[in-house]
Each structure stands twice: as C-alpha cells, then as structure tokens.
Amino acid sequence: MAAADSSDAVHPLANPGYGKRTAPYQEPRGPQDFAHLPAREAAVAAYVDRLPDGSDISVKTLAKHLPYGQCALRTSLNRIQRAGHLRRGREHLDGKWITRTWFSRAPRDSAWWAAFQQGDVPREAKKQTRSRAYVLLAALGRENSALSLSHIECRSLVTLVEEWFARDADETYILRALTSGLPQPVHHPAGLVRRRLTDKLPPLPIRREPAPPRILECGKCGAPGYTDTLHDGDCAPCRGELPPLPRPRPASLPAPQVRAHATEIREQLEARRG
C-alpha cells in the first residue's frame, strides 16, 4: 500500500461547515479496514479515514498531500464511493444548504446510505462467532481474577450485558461498573456480576435530535438523488441504465399568432421606409 506524502505539512481544514464528515456508528480502526480495495484506493481511503472532521478532501488538496495526481485521485475517490465508503451531498443547517462529503470506515451498501439520508440508520450487529457481550464477560477474569467466570456463567449473563449496550454503554464503562470497589473476598463471582448488571443498569438514552434534512448527490453528474435512486453513489443515467432526461423545449406560439407578429413587423418596416 502506498504511503501518504512524508512532508510535515498539516492537512488543511475546509471552510467552516464544509469538508469531511464521519458517518455514524464506526468501529475502531483495524489493519484490514480497506484490505478489500486495490492498493491505491486503500491508501487514499486510509489517509482520508485518519483526517479529522472538517478536513478539506477535495482532489486538489489531497494531491498536495498524497503521491498521486488529481486525475488518479478523482478515479480513486469514485472507486471508494462505489465500494460504499463515501457519499457526496448536501445537508440543510441553519436555514441554508451545506455541501457535505460523508466517509465511512466500514463499507455501506446503498440501502444503508438511503436510510442515512432519511436520518434512520440502525446499528449493525457485529458479525463474530462470540457475541460482544460474551467477549466482555470472558475478559472479566483478566481485568480482575476474582471475577473469573465459566463458559456457562458467561452465557447466562449475556442478555444482561446486551441491555447495557442497548443503552449506549461501551466496554470501558461496563468493565468499570463491574470491577470497581469489589468486596474482599468475592465468594460468588457470577452472582456478584449478575447483581451489579441488574442494580447499576444505566437509564434509557435520551432521544437524539432528528437528523437535519439531507440530499445525497450523484458522484458523477451531481444530480440529487432520493432514497434508493442512487446505487453505489451514482444515478441511473450515469450507470447507463436510463437515458438522460431531454431538455425542455421552449413553448411554441400558435401559427395564427406567428403570422400576426410577422405582419406587424412588416408593417412597421414599411412605415419606417415611408
């Protein structure tokens, strides 16, 4: 994978309100995040992923910080878009439409981006053999040996931990709640964990404000798209599925009115000659 430019120049921010925006519900970074992309696209995606929100990710600016030309970068961004990592569009904030470029570390399909446009994006369940809750419970013994649990005990407590996750608690928060201030000694680890998971359950999360109105745009022609009309970030005409809409022709005048105008013009010309 090609590395970013080694120069010490700090990547600039876009004008206030513009630039990169991180899509919601991102998992922690990992070495295989962009392994499914070709080498150049993986390098560009990894660089953009590390940039803070508000960074200028225009082709012209990226070309100053990456070892690729503007044409190559434009192609790479289009491929990254088709892979589900990037969408371009506008968002209505404070009474005006702001240009946005949203970036997702995880590849999202067109249905996910359509839901994002409507402000209704569900969290995805993690695809792994052991659930997120089971992994946390199994790790308790490493945090504090007094809380070592058996496989059966972990399975019996999974639903309680999942309720904490549903209330927006993360692993660090839950581990702190379960391991801080333990009695000495701990006679029944599973019973203590169950009691704390029940008694210290956090309140239901406060409902978030509704997402601002968004319009995603075709990555090629910039035409606005709604719900499922964009696939891989491109509209149907740009995908070659539909011909472009014909341009409207100016309305023509009825024949009698055309003749009347012509007669009037001729009379005016003859009057001037006379």
Write the layout of secondary structure elements.
Elements: E1 20-22, H1 39-50, H2 59-63, H3 70-82, E2 86-93, E3 96-103, H4 110-117, H5 132-138, H6 140-143, H7 151-166, H8 171-179, H9 189-199, E4 214-217, E5 224-225, H10 255-273
Parallel strand pairs: 1-3
Antiparallel strand pairs: 2-3, 2-4, 4-5
Helix pairs in contact: 1-3, 5-7, 7-9
Can you tell me about this structure?
The chain has about 270 residues and is of the alpha+beta class. It is built from ten helices and five strands; from the N terminus they run E-H-H-H-E-E-H-H-H-H-H-H-E-E-H. The protein folds into two domains: about 1-120 and about 215-274, no CATH class; about 130-200, no CATH class. Helices cover about 40% and strands about 10% of the residues. It has a five-stranded mixed β-sheet with strand order 1-3-2-4-5. Strand 4 (about 215) and strand 5 form a beta hairpin. Helix 1 (about 40-50) crosses helix 3 and helix 7 (about 150-165) runs parallel beside helix 9 (about 190-200). The longest helix has 19 residues, at about 255-274.
